[in-house]
Amino acid sequence: MKDLSLHILDIAQNSITAKAKSIFIGIEEDSAANTYIIRVEDDGCGMSKEVLELVTDPYYTSRTTRRVGLGIPLFKQNAEQTGGYLAIDSEPGRGTVIEAMFVHDNIDRPELGDISGVLLLLIGANPELHFRYVHRKDGQGYALDTRELQEALDDMPVSNPNILGYIKEMITENLAAIDVYQ
Amino acid sequence: MLITIQRKNQLMTKIKSLADLRKKKEDLQAKIALREKSDSPEGRVLVKVAMATCGIASGSKDVMEYIADELNKRNIDAIVSQTGCMGYCYAEPTIEVTLPGKEPVVYGDVDVKKADEIIEKYIRNQELVDGIIPVNYQTIENNKEE
Fold first, then answer.
1. CA distance A15 to chain B (A)
2. What fold does the segment set B41-145 form as a domain?
């Protein structure tokens, strides 16, 4: 994975596969504590304790089309390379929380990448799901909620290509306002 | 003159809030009403981009953005969506194209250039393009039922 936004896209796909209806994506940058924390929470089917122990093993996957599952192991490896960690909490029927901490100023921390593009792909391809995105950086923050978007759009589908372009611009502008550049 | 400048400024304003978004949406709605798009899903082209770890790592995000953008620009009525890994990790990014009334076709190693070729030749003119994966291809949903 080239950057953090692609990891987020990958992990969010797991949530979609787990039949989540609502997905929260949070990024918290704290320069004082020197941490860069990414959280993905969903209300999907969750995992049992046994599965939870296996998901960081690259040779475990829930799918039948191939025998390896690298999404979480790669994310974990990248976080640990900076001196951070990856933690997963999950309960069958309730959902899953995945949290990765990267050491902010570590040279191995990948850059954020095109997060607005990633959000757009997720929102555009899954208009029926509820997405929330919160990005905090040293006390400032930006929050996006697809329910609010849909309200502003009335009956216009959020997946309309022009509308997606407008939303992308909105996210990019608001992130730039809190000094997050992609 | 003043009015034109003001209008230009208005068009140049960046969208920052939900209110701005609503305003843009209303402008767009007025335009769409003029164009009157057909609303039959059966008549639409369906493009699914494989978006699992293997696809993402090979650049499927950029390919999907390109396809969605270009189909819109070229005025082709299509739905672009995502699918999981189809087991062709070696050939990622892969896309599955279903033309109305036809069997789905899967293309492998699709970069932006290949995507352009697929749009122009296959989607527009139904000419097959190099890079089709298996002939006996089944969709991921069918595979699961086995």
1. 12
2. Glutaredoxin (3.40.30)
